[in-house]
Specification:
Blueprint: H1 2-30, E1 60-62, E2 73-75, E3 81-84, E4 89-93, E5 105-109, E6 114-119, E7 125-129, E8 133-137, E9 143-147, E10 149-150, E11 153-154, E12 158-163, E13 169-173, H2 184-189, E14 194-200, E15 205-213, E16 216-221, E17 227-232, E18 237-242, E19 251-255, E20 260-267, E21 273-280, H3 283-287, H4 292-298, E22 313-318, E23 324-330, E24 337-343, E25 346-351, E26 357-361
Antiparallel strand pairs: 1-26, 2-3, 3-4, 4-5, 6-7, 7-8, 8-9, 10-11, 12-13, 13-14, 14-15, 16-17, 17-18, 18-19, 20-21, 21-22, 22-23, 24-25, 25-26
Amino acid sequence: MLSSVTNAIKSLLYVLVAGIFILISSLYIISDVEPVIWQPDPPRALEGVYAQNNRLDALIPILPNQGNGPEDMALGPDGMIYTAYENGDIVLFDPTAADINLTAKLVNNTQGRPLGLRFNAQGDLIIADAIKGLLKMDSSGRISILVTEYQGERLRFVDHLAVGNDGIIYFSDASMRFGMHNFVYDFIETSMTGRVFAFDPRTEQLTLLMDNLFFANGVAIDEQNDYLLVNETGKSRILKYALTGESVGTTSVFIDELPGMPDNIYRDPYGAYWVGLINLRDPLVEKLAAYPFVRRVLGGIPANWFQPSSEYGMVIALDASGNVLENLQTAHAYTSITTALPHGGQLFVSSLRQDHIAVMPLD
């Protein structure tokens, strides 16, 4: 009798092991991920200039139920703040109104997924749309296409942008491998195919400036147009690309070992750079950096099954030398922050995951 039970248990274990083997093999085979080994920076705790605090607990929701995922914001020449949602809507609102919610107005819809927003000197809204490419919306609300491909290959993930004083548009293409709906695989694969381009609307010339970036994201340009700042989200750092001077065309590290993953970056009128940290650094991504087989298997799991390991809200402001000027955090009031825009003594923040924007007085 005992022998029969033992044999049954062994048979069950064999079946279980075989099932696990088949499952892992199947995930490996169907995976489109081609993992690359990489070395993350040492972990960075919320201490020192990044000391944990609750300053963002004062955030108040605005524009509720307007749409999901208000990724970016831009201050228009009309004094309105413009934002965009995952359904393609471009919406403006009056940041000075007593009741901001009553001022929300739908301007247009890109029929894609607008992410980065910036105005040029002519008052056109330049839009980085992850699906449609680099777009322009004129003052009448009419949308036209500026760029969709490079050297005959379609841009997969146009993400963010900055506009120079001369009208040149600098924009990021987050990944050559994955798009908006499965970008999580880019963090699993870590092949680092993000790029930054310069587009001259006058000549329609498109120039590659930077490549081999681990998810190229937010872009900002200094007031004198001497350099670009580019958020390299996967490596939790910000890079600096020289546009002028003896080091023109070279890339250096502006700030690294951030405690979170930088998304968008906004230069305020006083020269400070405001950065939304969408999540704290992901330990799963970093711990698996040296294990490509495991990551290949994970690439067979549907992208929408993956969720961030942390839900946290964090904003920092940096000076022109990369020193931390502001450190604002919250564990619950507003998370997955992508953009921080100070205006009129208030701080407006937006998010990839929230269904509203939030605002608080900025002391």
